[in-house]
Amino acid sequence: MSSPSSLLATPRAFVAWSLAHGLQRRFLHRAATRGDRMARLATDPAYYDDPYPSYDEIRAEGRIVRNGLVAGTVDHAVANAILRSDDFGTGNGQGELPAPLRRLHQLVRDPDTLSPVDPPSMLVVDPPVHTRYRHLVSRAFTARKVGRMADRVEEVAERLLDDLEREPTFDLVGRYAALLPVAVIADILGVPEDERDQVLGWGNHAATTLDPGLSWAQYQEASAALKEMHAWFAMHLERLRRAPGDDLLSQVLQDPEAADLTEQELHAIGLLVLGAGFETTVNLIGNAVALLDAHPDQRAWLQDNPDGWANAVEEVLRFDAPVQLTMRASYRDTEVAGERVAANEAVLVYLGGANRDPAVFTDPDRFDVRRANAADHVGFSAGVHFCLGASLARLEATVALRALYGRYPDLRVVGRPERRTTRVLRGWERLPVSTLARVPALDTP
Ligand code: HEM
After folding, report:
1. Is residue 137 part of a domain?
2. Spacing, Cα 380 to ligand 1 middle (Å)
3. Do the domain assignments include residue 1?
4. How far is it, in rounded angstroms, from Cα 427 to Cα 424?
5. DSSP 351-415
6. How many separate domains does the chain show?
7. 53 alpha carbon to ligand 1 midpoint, in Å?
8. Is residue 133 within 6 Å of ligand 1 at its C-beta?
9. Which atom of ligand 1 is nearest to the CA of 141?
10. How much of the chain, in percent, has pLDDT values that exceed 70?
């Protein structure tokens, strides 16, 4: 019997993979062998496991560096200027391809496996189309509406912690950091309780598609998961059409302004919000716990000064950004923050690198939950694509951490944490923790 992924191994899918990943993969591997820093960051775990030394090297080389395929920047002012400039667009997520190949990719791409970085996803379309999609969903994420979710977020956090009461050691990511955001976003999108685990599984695969230069096997696996996700979403939309709830999707479906959205546009909006809603926040919570474990004095300070949690979350976003990079393509010859960029250049904007820019952050490699300007990070990007869920993510992380350390003041990371292998998204796959005051196996020499 064929596996779901082998069903997707058609010549058309192979052409789509070659354009979106294959060509880039060849270039990246060759460039990495030559020692190109951006290519090494994209391909070699020895570099992307800890990208920060490479960002310093890129910074020393220039405010914008180039490797023949793409340009890149770790400069805070340049990053901000590019993200906010009308001279740049998203390049439909494929700024590194010449325009005719981009168009060819859109023609051959299987519409049933579209990912968050394929148009018509809001993330990779430009105004005015982007403005329309964004307007439709942004109403659900206003500061006031998010503020009203605080009680629900707290209730979910406390319930998850109740479930862990009898377990002195557990995987913080699998049992807490991943479950909280998925429960919250599933509420927002009206996903029934018993379908959430399945959605979480697909989301993990979909997250891979953000990375550059996937292998053919990785691409097929991700496409298979996306196909299942699209089929489930079609069923979910049908269910909400028949019996609308008070969730965001039901709202969009009933909105007269959304009446002429195609089924594909609806999928793109819903699946992006769903994926972006949990695939990133899980990393923020996990990264925070790992950093606070490495800085027990700062954790103790927060436990005595709970008002400091909000700024601590900003510092985690700055110090170890859950989304490390994005890309923009220039429409025309232009100048950003004094740097020239030619028309049709693709620029990798390393958000995680810009967040360590010493021109903005004093002693940038020091983690400091009391840093006065921590919130000047670009961890949520900037400009028209500034993260739509930023206030929700901030709320979730603040509540999650305060509740976690409130319940388990002695929580410690134990055993061997494992990093996620994704490169755009940065976080932990497994973070084993103990809630005991003393961890015998580790305390004894
Ligand atoms: C720690 C958590 C999060 C981080 C670090 C994060 C980061 C980002 C970044 C960097 C972008 C823009 C990428 C670009 O400029 O190309 C973005 C966009 C977006 N995020 Fe988030 N995000 C987080 C949580 C969330 C949540 C909880 C939601 C939804 C509930 C969400 C929904 C979105 C959406 C819909 C966009 C696309 C906005 C647009 O293109 O206009 N994000 N996010």
Report:
1. yes
2. 6
3. no
4. 10
5. HHHHTT-TTTSSSTTS--TT-TTGGG--TT--GGGS-TTHHHHHHHHHHHHHHHHHH-TT-EE-S
6. 1
7. 26
8. no
9. 30
10. 96
pLDDT tens digits, residue range 137-193? 998 788 888 989 999 999 999 999 999 999 999 999 999 999 999 999 999 999 999
Q: Could you tell me if residue 266 is inside a domain? A: yes
Q: For residue 421, which phi and psi values (nearest 5 degrees)?
A: -90, 0
**What's the CATH code of the domain at 72?**
1.10.630.10
At 233, list the tokens. Answer: 């979403």
C-beta of 276 in contact with ligand 1 (< 6 A):
yes
Amino acid at 294: A
pLDDT, averaged across the chain: 93
How far apart are alpha carbons 299 and 122 in whole angstroms? Answer: 37
Nearest-CA residue for ligand 1 atom 40 is: 123
Domain region containing 41: 6-443
Structural domain contains residue 330: yes
Cα–Cα distance measured from residue 422 to residue 300, given in angstroms and rounded to the nearest whole number: 31
pLDDT tens for 241-291 read 999 998 889 988 999 989 999 999 999 999 999 989 888 999 999 999 999
Q: Any idea which residue has 């079609």 for tokens? A: 234
pLDDT digits (tens, 9 = 90+) for 212-238: 899 999 999 999 999 999 999 999 999
